[in-house]
Amino acid sequence: SYSQFLNFDTCQPSFLAESLLITAYTLVTLVGLFGNLCLIVIIKRRKEAQNVTNILIANLSLSDVLICIMCIPVTVAYTLMDYWIFGEVMCKVSSFIQSISVTVSIFSLVLIAIERYQLIVNPRGWKPNISHAYWGILFIWGFSLIISIPFLIFHQLTDEPFKHLSFHSDFYKNKVACIEAWPSVTERLIFTTSLLVFQYCFPLGFIFICYLRIFVCLRRRHGKIDRIRENESRLSENKRINMMLISIVVTFAACWLPLNVFNVVFDWNYEALMSCNHNLAFTICHLVAMISTCVNPIFYGFLNKNFQKDLVGLVHHCRCTASQE
């Protein structure tokens, strides 16, 4: 159905709304890109920072960088312009990369939860090392690529939506839209519902269980009277790290919830969103989801004193290098 185009002449956002959206997206992109790149570089430069958790955090940042570069600019331009200007390859690749990045992000958080669980709840059991972290990263990138392949297959360019317009026909004469063209509605619903389960519901449920058990375990240890100062200090550090990681997970889940709800409504009750508010609702939900790219550097980076020191050192190093050249 192309009914979203029928009210095109009365659904244009105001100049103020467009300006606010562009400003917000630009701010999110800059913070996400700069913060995540700095986080990756700092973890790479500091040998003592290269533990399992930090390597997985760097992987999470890498997926966020991909979204900032490949997905945000394209989505903003397409939403505001209402026609596609980036060619057939980008039509297929943009959604494909966004799906990969989201899957990599959530499963990086899953691996971090597993690592924290083994470290705290099962300290005498199997402990993942750096080699395991890299193998885990390789696996989740491969898994993410495989489950995102339908975006490559079923996205295509078409001028069909603009044939139904009775206004601005000359302007849209040679314009195209980038749409999902599935063989049947049933197949599309099966895929999008499965994606919701494997990209959002199941991983977050698993992470919740891991951190719940970690919380219970730390509470029990805190209640013991015969702990020594060293153990108390270690317990406090574990709590600090866990609270930071839980904050990242909760904020990630909250950021992606509106867009997931929007997509579910769009998939199962298409007509409910076919109004002048469709583009605005999607854009707001998408913007909130993109804020998740800033979560990692803010919680793990800018609020971390060690990261702040490393960031100052990195900026100073870049200035010295630039002045020498």
TrEMBL record:
What range(s) does the G-protein coupled receptors family 1 profile domain occupy? Answer: 35-300
- Which Gene3D superfamilies does the record match to this protein? Rhodopsin 7-helix transmembrane proteins
- Is Cell membrane found in the keyword set? yes
Q: Name one GO cellular component term.
A: plasma membrane
Give any Pfam family that matches.
7tm_1
Q: How does it sit in the membrane?
A: Multi-pass membrane protein
Q: Say if the entry is tagged with keyword Transcription regulation.
A: no
Q: Which GO terms describe its molecular function?
A: neuropeptide binding; neuropeptide Y receptor activity
- What broad class describes the main subcellular location of this protein? membrane
Tell me the protein family, please.
Belongs to the G-protein coupled receptor 1 family.
Instruction: Kindly provide the name given to this protein in its UniProt entry.
Output: Neuropeptide Y receptor type 6
Query: Which organism is the protein's source?
Result: Nestor notabilis
Upper classification of the source organism reads: Eukaryota, Metazoa, Chordata, Craniata, Vertebrata
